[in-house]
């Protein structure tokens, strides 16, 4: 049956690539794993058993005895019990008759070999006895034409532009997992990641006009789009300076981490707070946080020149976060710059580079010398927003 599963999946993939609207799977055996296929396909694989149940509910009362003629495999899979067992009495042929049925289907001169003579005689005999023989192909085809017959959409899939930087990507994914209200593996988000550390440095482009990362970011987003992502997250603050020029060429949204961060600050602390920004010089030069803050009525302040050098050293230095350090010199440098912003009047500090939360965690109240300040981690805000989007866009399947 594994080979059959793979074959059905590959054919469904081909249909999806051809942009068909739905797939019909007229095979009871294949319906024993239809849900497994549906989880991996972005178009509906219509449920033949749901079609049959809908029809039976229309033509028979609950408690009616249903006779089932099916292969040994389908019979023992419990497929019919899942859909009918609680409301109807199911009966199958005895062992001798089941053996004859299997021979009629799969034996020499059987139906599978194309010998159809005699089938109408069996149906006629059933009809004379008052037993209705249901034509599943007709029922399934009619079901496919009904709007309510369409399958639910597949689970939400989050695309992640990774490698900007690599450790920050892992940190972001960990936060998505940690904040998802899940009681089992299957309740977590689907994620597809393009871990591409070869994307040119965003700060180097913004400050020194080095290689433009736009093409590499766009290509990465398109690959995520092709992989079925419903939304894209970029766990890199500086990269958001390039989002606007990319978004118009994508069919799925990029969740804007900066906008979500600013909105979260306004909702939690109000619009009257002074907000300090700890970020790369590229992010500061791009003014992307400043623009988002202005729209929300927030005032953004940034470190003075000497203190901004410390921020950059804490990120890019030989003992910086991108070099794998989270304690020692890099943390001391970051705290000096943070204290400087507190002295300038900051009530809230944005950890505006996704490497910074590897050193300082999101906190409602954090003491820096004599200053109490809130630390806001945009990576956490982004993770929470992506979880919210997933919950809004995922329809739970009906349990059977």
Automatic annotation (TrEMBL):
<dbReference type="Pfam" id="PF01177">
    <property type="entry name" value="Asp_Glu_race"/>
</dbReference>
<dbReference type="InterPro" id="IPR015942">
    <property type="entry name" value="Asp/Glu/hydantoin_racemase"/>
</dbReference>
<dbReference type="InterPro" id="IPR033134">
    <property type="entry name" value="Asp/Glu_racemase_AS_2"/>
</dbReference>
<protein>
    <recommendedName>
        <fullName>Aspartate racemase</fullName>
    </recommendedName>
</protein>
<dbReference type="GO" id="GO:0047661">
    <property type="term" value="F:amino-acid racemase activity"/>
</dbReference>
<dbReference type="InterPro" id="IPR018187">
    <property type="entry name" value="Asp/Glu_racemase_AS_1"/>
</dbReference>
<keyword id="KW-0413">Isomerase</keyword>
<comment type="similarity">
    <text>Belongs to the aspartate/glutamate racemases family.</text>
</comment>
<dbReference type="InterPro" id="IPR004380">
    <property type="entry name" value="Asp_race"/>
</dbReference>
<dbReference type="InterPro" id="IPR001920">
    <property type="entry name" value="Asp/Glu_race"/>
</dbReference>
